[in-house]
Amino acid sequence: MEFEEYKKYRWFFTASEKLVVGGKSAEQNDELLNRIKNVKENLIVMHTAEPGSPFSVIMADVKKVSKKDLEECAIFTGCFSRAWRSGKDNTEIHIFKKSEISKGERMKAGTWGVLGKVEKMNVALKLALTYQNKVLRAVPEKSVKNEEVLAKLAPGKIEKANLAEKIKDKTGTSLNGAELASAIPSGGFRII
What's the predicted TM-score (pTM) here? Predict the structure, then answer.
């Protein structure tokens, strides 16, 4: 499935090179889910069990999605949710199909209903910094070959503004602060 505008959303590629796209706000979540409603393929959609999360979509037909793809997307969804900002180590993710989502007229922005079976997965909140398509991304560690990992992150106390300097101190890797800020979740960090 083609999705040329993916870079305006949160995004990454799984280890099997499937594009995952997630909203950056309630409005972007609505925009993304409205766009995929008209796609022929049935897609996997994820959200955290609690409010304050992107809706993340694996942009491949459900029949082509592996268990590893599901796990990588779930980690990504959890890491860019309120759970990271709250400093949690893990969170529960809800997994469902595009065909099972609906939006009622009175539902506020970013809120969708699920009519069907919701699978659940508990994931650890950890990300690896790497380059995908020449853009710095914070992605699930399982999505990256070890030699391509620039640094590993978990929720912690380091402020976003100080993270580039702390990564350089710990790993020797120099990163552009603005590019780093664009790639990572909101909240504090720990370099692991």
Answer: 0.93
